[in-house]
Amino acid sequence: MDIVLQQLVNGLTLGSVYGLIAIGYTMVYGIIGMINFAHGDVYMVSAYITAIALALLTFFGIESFPIILVGTLFLTVAVTGAYGWVIERIAYRPLRSSSRLSVLISAIGMSLILQNYVQLSQGANQQGVPTLLTGALRFHVGDGFVQITYMKLLILFISILGMGVLTYVIQKTKLGRMCRATQQDRKMASILGIDTDKVISTVFVIGAVMAALAGVLVTLDYGAFDFYVGFIIGIKAFTAAVLGGIGSLPGAMLGGLILGLSEALFAGLISSDYKDVFSFSLLVLILIIRPSGLLGKPEVEKV
Amino acid sequence: MSQAVGINFKKSSIDALIAGFMALVLFGPIVGVVLDGYGFNTEFVRVAWMVAAVAVGRFIMSSFFQTEKGIAMAFRYANNDEGVEVLKPGHKSKMVWIIPLVIAIGLLVPFIASKYVLTVVILGLIYVLLGLGLNIVVGLAGLLDLGFVGFYAIGAYGLALGYENLGLGFWSMLPIAALMAAVAGAILGFPVLRMHGDYLAIVTLGFGEIIRLILTNWASFTHGPNGVSAPLPTFFGLEFKRRSSDGQTFHEFFNIPYDSAYKYMFIYIVLFAVVWAVLFIKHRLVKMPIGRAWEALREDEIACRSLGLNHVLVKLSAFMLGASTGGLAGVFFATYQGFVNPSSFTFFESALILAIVVLGGMGSTLGVVIAAFCLTVLPEVLREFAEYRVLMFGILMVVMMIWKPRGIVRVTRTGFAARKGVVK
Amino acid sequence: MSNAVVRKTLISLAIASAATLAQADVVIGVAGPHTGAYAAFGEQLWKGAEKAAADINAAGGVNGEMIKLVKADDACEPKQAVSVANRLVDSDGALAVVGHFCSSSSIPASKIYEEAGVIMVTPASTNPTLTDQGLPNVFRVCGRDDQQGDVAASYIVDKLKAKRVAVIHDKDTYGKGLADAMKSTLNSYGVKEVMYEGLTRGEKDFNALITKIRSVDADVVYFGGLHSEAGPLVRQLREQGSKAIFISGDGIVSDEFVSVAGSPKYVDGVLMTFGAPPTSYPSGKKVIQEFRDGGYEPEGYTLYSYTAMQVAVAALANNNLDPIKGAKWLKTHSVDTVMGKKDFDDKGDLTVSDYVMYEWDAQGKYHVVE
Q1: Residue B407: inside a domain
Q2: Is C83 inside a domain boundary?
Q3: 3-state secondary structure of A62
């Protein structure tokens, strides 16, 4: 019993991380219909910036955990957001009017550039950050116990907060309306006076910021990363975004949670060798039943 | 005319300042602060150089785009999104002369090239096959397939495992592997072809990953990450080894000294023939009703269905044909390398094949051939750059896409003229 | 148009190869993952080989000829390993190769070196298949996975007297090979593992796997893999409150293991098998000191790479630069290296396995278990 509960907790925390990164994919897809393959590597860059910010803050003698956390979050979000903006400006904007596949290839090239740029400047070795927050909540169930570390609680809390703020921004603010208008009909929106280029840039920055949030939290929690870390988590997050219905914000979170839970439960109860086979099969199955993902709007076939 | 006319240096300077500031924000932490354990070392000099380079580059670019030449260039870029180029009816392709020339040169290559060059060219031809296969699926039928490497893996492992378990050699596995890959294409294609665009992409990506994961995990059959060795092709039963376990070897039979280059020459010649055969078949198919159906379905699915095309069958045929070509490429890859393991069939490989198709110009056969050679020869040429190799490769990919978003070779089509005496 | 592109490339390649052939130096390739996910190990290989070559050149070179190193990048992909091996033997005219790193690259490349009659000395590929192929020119200066697995298994059974052993691997040639070797020796001692599973390289969240380890109540966790996964694994193991003893192989020999684990307290008590310490050899001490003076910590495979270079050079120097004779010579002669005297058996493996058990302490350093 305790084992199953523990696996549920493991899956939930893993899933919330996938969800945070999936938002970047889903927003960019929603607005310009491209798969941003460099997104996983933006996450990777944010992991490096987290470690650098931590090292700088400790160098200047700051010890208290809340200040370090806030400082690191602020620095990482700012710099990663800048990366998101510049990547869009350099690699995607010149291809705005081209076929979506050209942008896809450009994104793959960008992903190679980011990986190798970070490797060349930071070295290829494994990096780590010191553990800052230890300890866990433990509940006794039967003979065993179920635990959730404080760091994991923080991840859950900040993901929910980030999601909430983002949903508010998209649904209620002027910026959100502009985003939604651009998403529905870019040409019409620009005729009505919306600077669509600016909106698209903003969406890339928002996506990068969400990846940076995940980057800070995951780096502080797992402590280990290298320049290649964006690849696997990027593919997983992309899968999550599609599972939930690409283009849908709650879908990204839901997809992340389902993916995380299915991985944890399958690995924990059956075999970790085939857990990825299981998650991909689940994805195929869900898409066969619901071809637009769980919360995605079914595509209207226009004549 | 003086160049300086019309250049607003104030604007250029502001642009350069902004670019420099962005460069500082981007490069400052990653390039300037190098992590060392939990501490760090600073490398501010290289940040300064990079920021200066970006600012100067931006200044020059900004100034250039204010000149007449620059404005004209920017205009050309903004308007390079034209569709298929339609040639005049009765257009005579220069290919009639070029093709025999290419064949003649191609046949000379194994005898003049060194072994290293030959291996690079073989790899190039394998990617030509892969590109042609994926071109049917993505370029002609318009189905985005991110898991093409799965069929490639089926071909490669088909040869290696077929030899190990059933004793089947290169020649028997060549058709069987193509068939196996086609069947796999059908199995995958049947349920998923209802999906649209990017959902199809992720499902095929999943399929490619599933194949690779099974190859990694099913160790009792596939030997997992240790890989399997694959046999060499035989020349009418003669082996290309230094010493044969049974029977005669190639060099003993012809009484020539042993040279390891013979096997590459032989693989090259067979592969060369297969590539031409595939090229020919594809060329014919495009002009046949099925090829027309693929392209029509890509352009407007609803219209095609209204006209009575069976969209599932048409898509499925594209999928299976593409897959079988991928399987063929896999067999050649396995025999060329003499060894296969799952690390050759990652998602990156799928992305590379897709890059070949897109870079070549979707649907263009000639473009695919050129792009396949570019993308396989390029990393070898870039070896001079040592650790900057992959970075350069990535930069070239982005630059090529921005420079030629429609690919290297634009798709052309011969137009039709109305026949006299028929409806005008 | 297509033939023009191809022709130009061919011509430039031909010119490039002619230029390298024109030099009279002794060319030795250093093949490994200089880019890609394993680039950290490629750097260790290169640093070791570079220093060895510089030292040998400073001492007069190989029979008066200078060593010229060629950096050959395979990114640990078999496909690239084949083309880079062909390039080394063909265009660069290498007489010997130090490398490759990954066993999955070494195995296909070894066949090309054998055909070309080039000596191959790998500092790091521990997979038994490599030398079991029976190629005359392949040597390794590291141990074999099965030797390493033996040391670990007998330690688990004899010293720890453990009954419940969980075996985890990273599904890679090295990690799985090591875990399998350990498992089969363990089984031959009559101990059956309670769990045998693989994790995915590159992932960092192993909580599901660890909860499972907790549920089978293992008292020893054996991990075949590298420090990049071992660090998070051992950290999450401790975070979930498991006290199981963590044992691994030479894949975690790196100070990065501590920083990746998050804190020295997590690696405290971790055991690992690794070759006898190079510092125990007088010649090794001097080289290590020189490395440190140059601002580089020679960890992991750096000294193995240095040793591999010495072995290759010794074979060439004593046989008038004839690699085929050199390979025969190596099987009957021993070579003095920074890591002591090395003898090779008929397969090209070291005759003496020098694996010993190390333990990490709470300061994040490792030392031999007495």
Answers
A1: yes
A2: yes
A3: coil
Alpha carbon C225 to its chain centroid, in Å, reads 12
SS3 content of chain C, % helix, strand, coil (to 5): 50, 20, 35
The span from the CA of B260 to the CA of B263, in Å, is 6
Neighbours of chain C (3+ CB pairs under 8 A): A, B
Cα(C118)–Cα(C123) distance, rounded to whole angstroms?
16
Q: Which domain holds residue C56?
A: 2-142+301-338
In CATH terms, is domain A2-289 a member of 1.10.3470?
yes
Which domain CATH number covers C164?
A: 3.40.50.2300
A10 φ/ψ sector (left φ>0, alpha ψ -120 to 50, else beta): alpha
Are C136 and C171 contained in the same domain? no
Q: Do B292 and B351 reside in the same domain of the chain? A: yes
Q: What is the CATH number of the domain that holds B137?
A: 1.10.3470
What is the per-residue pLDDT for B423?
54
Same domain? For C135 and C8 the reply is yes
Count up the domains in chain B and report the number.
2
Take residue C17 and report the two structure tokens written for it: 């190869």
Residues 6+ apart with CB under 8 A from C237: C210, C213, C221, C244, C246
CA C320 – CA A99 distance, rounded (Å): 61
Does C347 fall in a domain?
no
Nearest-CB residue to A52 (from B33, B213, B388): B33
Q: What's the CA gap between A105 and A83, in Å, rounded?
A: 19
Which residues between 97 and 126 in chain C have a beta carbon less than 8 angstroms from any beta carbon of chain B? Answer: 103-104, 107-108, 111-112, 115-116
Q: Where are the domains of chain A?
A: 2-289
Six token digits for residue B108: 């000379």
Same domain, yes or no: C26 and C159: no
How many folded domains does chain C comprise? 2
Is the CB of residue B102 less than 8 Å away from at least one CB of chain C? yes
**DSSP string of C41-87?**
HHHHHHHHHHHHHHHHHHTTTBTTBPEEEEEEE-TT-HHHHHHHHHH
Q: Cβ contact (<8 Å) for B366 and C173? A: no
- Determine contact, residues C156/C247, Cβ cutoff 8 Å: yes
Q: Between vectors from CA B197 to CA B194 and to CA B202, what angle results, nearest 5°?
A: 90
Give the rounded distance of the alpha carbon of B409 from its chain centre. Answer: 14
Distance CA B276, CA B282 (A): 10
* Count of helix runs (H) and strand runs (E) in chain A: 11, 4
Q: Whole domain around residue B33: which residue ranges? A: 9-77
Q: Which residue from C39, C40, C262 is facing A128, i.e. has the nearest CB? A: C262
Q: What is the ipTM of this complex?
A: 0.84
| pLDDT band, residue B177 (cuts 50/70/90) | very high
Give domain status of residue C113, yes or no.
Answer: yes
Same domain? C264 vs C308:
no
The sheet carrying C119-122 orders its strands as C67-73, C26-32, C96-98, C119-122, C138-140
Same domain, C306 and C253: no
* B225/C14 touch (CB, cutoff 8 Å), yes or no: no
Are the beta carbons of C35 and B387 separated by less than 8 Å?
Answer: yes
% of chain A exceeding 70 in pLDDT: 98
Angle among Cα C44, C50, C52 to the nearest 5 degrees reads: 105
Are C111 and C227 in a shared domain?
Answer: no
Whether C348 maps to a domain, the answer reads no
Q: Which of C205, C209, C212 to mutate to test the interface with A (most CBs of A within 10 A)?
A: C205
Q: Distances in Å between the alpha carbon of C53 and those of A7, A72, B384?
A: 53, 44, 21
pLDDT digits (tens, 9 = 90+) for C315-325: 888 888 888 88
pLDDT value of position B90: 67
Q: Which residue of C has its CA nearest to B35?
A: C259
**DSSP-assigned letters across all residues of C137-169:** TEEESS--HHHHHHHHHHIIIIIS--S-EEEEE
Q: Is B383 or A252 the better-scoring residue by pLDDT?
A: A252
Q: Look at residue C2 and tell me whether its pLDDT is greater than 60.
A: no
